[in-house]
């Protein structure tokens, strides 16, 4: 019998050992990468759940109807990793009427969310306590100042922080009283006609300058049954397309108003679709939209939409308005 003995060079044996070692390390490394990836995905899902809860607390879902007003609202964040941004809105029925706030905090991200939360918390308390909008606005001013002082102490200077704020009070007879600190005026939707609710110069935004000593709401006319208001933040009209052209919110509202039956929910969906198409599904700034339609049926009286004079108003609100009976 002939025995054949295979002789392998030592170099080949070393290469084989290194190959086995590399394969082992590759397998272990791949397993670790997959494990880390799965852990990161679980953490991301948890963060999104927490963000969803935070959104529901900060911008809590509005009911479809408040005291005879049909409502639809939505918010889009410019930060792809966030569900909320620096825009804020709220609608609350009080004994003084339905009170509304729409605001826009400078910037976006976590810092803007904190400032928006401070303003919303103050508004939700003040609208029930204060008899007129001027006092509500002063409460918001103090809340913003406190928040910025705390941020300056705990994190970084916030001297340039500010917020635009629009306050509305819609009374039982449809009268609309307003206070505007640097915010875009709402659009009035009457049939298929869309026009700004007012054209007066607003007060400066909250933050950089103190409010004037004399502060009273302005009468912006009367919201008749079937008419609607479209409140928004400037991210809507600042949205640009690929050619740098701004989005025409007024034109989008006109197009939506021609759709029948025209509900606040349909107006909101139509405008948002047009906005996303225009901006390529990626708005450069936070966007908030709020549609309020008067579905009450017993209002009467003439309307005067124009606001004369300054943003302080053509007719000051009384410090103790008569309580209204809710529908």
What's the SSE blueprint?
Blueprint: H1 10-58, E1 65-66, E2 69-76, E3 87-94, E4 97-105, H2 110-129, H3 133-154, E5 163-170, E6 175-181, E7 187-190, E8 193-196, E9 218-222, E10 228-232, H4 235-238, H5 249-257, H6 264-279, E11 287-294
Helix pairs in contact: 2-3, 5-6
CATH names the topology of the largest domain as Phosphatase 2c, domain 1
Fourth CATH level, the homologous superfamily of the largest domain: PPM-type phosphatase domain
Quote the distance from N terminus to C terminus. 111 Å
Uncertain spans: 47-53, 300-327
The CATH architecture assignment of the largest domain turns out to be 4-Layer Sandwich
Q: How are helices and strands ordered from N to C? A: HEEEEHHEEEEEEHHHE
CATH class of the largest domain: Alpha Beta
Provide the residue-averaged pLDDT: 80
Extended strand count: 11
Number of helices: 6
Determine the strand fraction and express it as a percent band: 15-25%
